[in-house]
Amino acid sequence: GPRPAGGGAYWVDSQQKRYVPVKGDHVIGIVTVKAGDVFRLDVGGSEPASLSYLAFEGATKRNRPNVQVGDLVYGQFVVANKDMEPEMVCIDSSGKSSGMGVIGQDGFLFKVSLGLIRKLLAPKCEIIQELSQLYPFEMVLGMNGRIWVKAKTVQQTLIIVNILEACEYMTAEQRKQALAKLSGN
Amino acid sequence: FMQRGLDSQTKKQLEEEEKKIISEEHWYLDVPDLKEKESCIIEERSFLRCEDLVYGRMSFKGFNPEIEKLMIQMNSKCKEEEIEEDDKMEADVSDEEMARRYETLVGTIGKKFLRKRDQRVLKDDDEDEDDEEGSSNTRPSKRAKKMFLKPQD
């Protein structure tokens, strides 16, 4: 339902699975095509986004970033409207990468609904706080519904993935029970 | 030519008749025009603007220390909390090394640019310190360089 925010804005909540590119959103994209100077990334929208090889920190015409087809890239949209193909970059306005760029090897990418992403990105999210107590791991959340997780072992990674996926429909109680079982192991 | 005029006249008459018929059929409101209110609704595609969202890349329990630093940086930008850790970036060279380097480096480079008189003064000072070898080594090599080498026949 509609909720108030700090700035006096109200918005309508709705469950949505399909992502629509929006300027400024940080998303995880998969490189599908490497076409000369530009990469095409699948971001889960209606069309692939383009990413120039110069849009990385420290990239020049001679110093090209090491991006291959099939790589995962975390970046933000600079152009995203219904009339044009969306464009992404992996640097922010000051030219620094600040965490964006190619996401490393290993790890696991999976898809969740946009509503869950919003929950996870809320400040002081309980799910995140509880998970962070479990094992050391790292995670990248894309606003396009994609999450990438990497932990020390495959088993730990999959456990975290399963919990996140299940958070869609689990209540807080069920989640705490599940986590208690796991940390007991 | 009269025919053409007649034609245009008949056309006009026909048009007028048509208009009358049509205008009678048109419905119109007797209500006075409503003032258009400025719409306070802005359509926004993403909830990025609505909520104070945390940065999307995160790491826990020291899995990826760079990202953990980034998390603190990014989240403090949003919340403007005081950063408890030092703001200093980890230096490649420690402070002690820096001090040692400076001691020796600045001295030797400084000597290079001194005039001859000052160099002699320095040399006297150096002989008192431990830098004897250094300065005495440089002396002969400089002299060697300055001296003209006769080409061998």
UniProtKB/TrEMBL annotation, chain A:
GO BP: CUT catabolic process; exonucleolytic trimming to generate mature 3'-end of 5.8S rRNA from tricistronic rRNA transcript (SSU-rRNA, 5.8S rRNA, LSU-rRNA); nuclear polyadenylation-dependent rRNA catabolic process; poly(A)-dependent snoRNA 3'-end processing; regulation of gene expression; TRAMP-dependent tRNA surveillance pathway; U4 snRNA 3'-end processing
Places the protein is found: Cytoplasm; Nucleus, Nucleolus
Lineage: Eukaryota, Metazoa, Chordata, Craniata, Vertebrata
One Gene Ontology MF term: RNA binding
Claim: Magnesium is one of the keywords in the record: no
Similarity field: Belongs to the RRP40 family.
CDD domains from the UniProt entry: KH-I_Rrp40, S1_Rrp40
UniProt name for this protein: Exosome complex component RRP40
Entry keywords, A to Z: Cytoplasm, Exosome, Nucleus, RNA-binding, rRNA processing
Superkingdom of source: Eukaryota
TrEMBL record, chain B:
Biased composition (Acidic residues): 124-134
PANTHER family assigned: M-PHASE PHOSPHOPROTEIN 6
InterPro entries: MPP6
Coiled-coil spans in chain: none
GO biological process, one term: maturation of 5.8S rRNA
Compositional bias (Basic residues): 140-153
Protein's organism: Rhipidura dahli
Name of encoding gene: Mphosph6
Protein name according to UniProt: MPH6 phase
Region (Disordered): 120-153
